[in-house]
Each structure stands twice: as structure tokens, then as C-alpha cells.
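Exercise 7. Predict the structure of Porin Gram-negative type from Caballeronia insecticola.
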Amino acid sequence: MSLTGEFMRYGRIAIFVAGLFNASAHAQSSVTLYGVIDTGVEYVSHANAAGDAVVRMPGITGEFPSRWGMRGVEDLGGAMKAVFVLESGFNVRAGDSGQGGRLFGRQAFVGLEGPWGTLSLGRQYTMTYWAMGDADILGPDIYGIGALDAYLPNARSDNTIAYKGKFYGVSVGGSYSAGRDSAGTGNSPGQGTCFGPVPGDVSQCREWSAMLKYDGTYFGLATSYDEQRGGTNAAANFFDGVTPTHITSSGDKDARIQTNGYVNVMGVKLGGGWIGRRVTSDDTAGSVRSNLFYLGAQYYVTPALALDGEAYRVIVQQHDTRATMASLRATYFLSKRTAVYGNVAYLWNSARARFSVSAGGGGTTPAVGVGQLGAIIGLRHSF
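Solution. The predicted structure, encoded as C-alpha cells:
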């Protein structure tokens, strides 16, 4: 056999073996495309200071915020995996991107996963979000807890290193960000931009959170702490109509501590909790405190029909503002992926407050002391 023929034969063998290795690696890796499209037609009373009502397609969400994303996993051997998530929020009404126009504003991280938990890096949820996942019955619903504190269903931060692990029903987690929000709209409206540390001040725009959670067959309990440090242009909004408190110094803090729980009794799930918020600042507004309470229930009348509801009470002490909101929802599942729903809620404001019933945005802040009625009929499809 000629030398050229020998090289060709071995070359074909090398290509064949490489193909086998590539096929094996491909079999151990996967990438999944997923998403939710959710929108509806909403009515809101007293949508402005003049007392006018509005009928619209809300700009942000119905039951679940619309999004599309990709998640991937690769088996590295030794019970360890590489994982990633890229998730983009969008507005169905206009087709534009959410989270300040970011391409992957909801999540963008890569990490390693093993029996010891998951370590991830990038833009991702803080422990505030994960701690509320089971006790907050309505979740990110348009007439849910986000109407009173928009940070809660959107608790995520940029430049974040996070860890989560679950051991025999007990979940622990923590996150650390050196610069929590570079776009200014990624966490909640009115928070302001907070890019990160500057030379000589490593605390500016820092965010950290921690969580401890237990989930059992019949009940669960959770607690978490979330602290955001101040920085240039940063602010703390209480969503009650009062001008946001400036937290421009790295010594300023916007902290939330919470405790919550849920039980499953005779087919009914009950959940509730408390969130205490403390903003300390050198701003003229000084330090501000708030307390937010919630209690909800969910019941499946049939496997295709779910009824749930939640009540909320928020008190912002230094602003002398208070609000109470009640929200009821019915969801009918046309299939595993498609559902129609109806949701109605009413919010009672105190004499000095301007909380709004709708988390859907679009200028629905009522006059001081006026309550609001909100109602939406919507359609949701998952893929």
C-alpha cells in the first residue's frame, strides 16, 4: 500500500472515531426552546386623577409575564452538569422587549450543577423571588403582589453570582451582585440605574440576598433577606404616589426581610406571609419603613378549572399611606399548554395614598385616596 493510501485509511478512521465521540457528546447534551404568551383585555376604573376609566391591553402581563427562552444542559460526568438559561421578556400588545429593552432581560446565566447544588453567574433572580414561589398564591398576576411592590415578582440583578441547593426538603441559597441594575428598569420602575462599584468604593450598587426554605408534603416555610446598597442615580420607590427616596450613597440601604408559609388541606392550598422593607438614606425624606401582608387560597374545582384569590395589606409608616387589595381569579385549562382566565380585583387607598390596582403599567395611578376596580379576561399559551 502506498504512503498516501495509508494516510487516507488512517484519516478515515480518525474521522469515524471523532464522529462517535461527537455523537456521544450530543446525546448527553440538550437545548430546549420554551416560552409563554399571555395577554388580555383589561378594564381599570379611576385610571387617572380625573377619575376616568380605561379599557386596554395591558403592557406587561396577564397571569404570567410573556417570555421566550432557551435552556441547556450538558452532562460533564461525575454527576456534574453545565447549565445555561437565556430568557427574554416581551410585550404582546406592541411586540417590544421588556426589562428596559434588554434582549435577555429576564435571565441570562451559565453555571455548574451537581449533588451539592447549582452555582451560576450572570443576570438572575435573587433569593427574594425564590422564597416567595410557593406561598404567594397569585404570583406575578396583573392584580397580584406586584401592584403594591413591583420589585417582588421581578427580583433579579445583574452581575450576579448565585448558589442554590436542596437537601432532604431544605433549600438554601444566596446571591451577590457587584452592580445590580445597569438599565434602571430591570428590577422595578423608579429604582434608577446602579451600575456597580467605583474605584475606592466597593459597596456602591452592591446587592446580596440569602434564603432558607423547607418544602414538605403538606406544608412549607421560607424566609429570606435582600439588601441593595445605594449608588449614583439610585432610588427606592414605594409605589404609593410619594416621590421615590434617593439612595445615592453606598451607605444607603434598601432592604427587605420576609417570612412566609403554605399548607395543603383537603385539596385547598393556603399561603401567606409578611415582607418588611427598610430604606435608610441621607436623603431629605430620611428613613422609610413599610410592612406588606398577604394571604391567599387556591382550589381546583376540576382538573381543568382552578379558583384562587389573595388579599393584601400594605402600610408605609413614614409616608402615612396604606392600601388594602382583594383579588379573585378563575383559570380554565383548555389543554396542558393553553388556558383562558378571568381576574377581578379592587384596591382601597387611604386618604394620602396613590397605590394602583394594576401592575400592567400604562398610567393607571388614581387620585389621592381613590380606590380602583380592575378586571381582565385573558388567554395564555405555553410552548
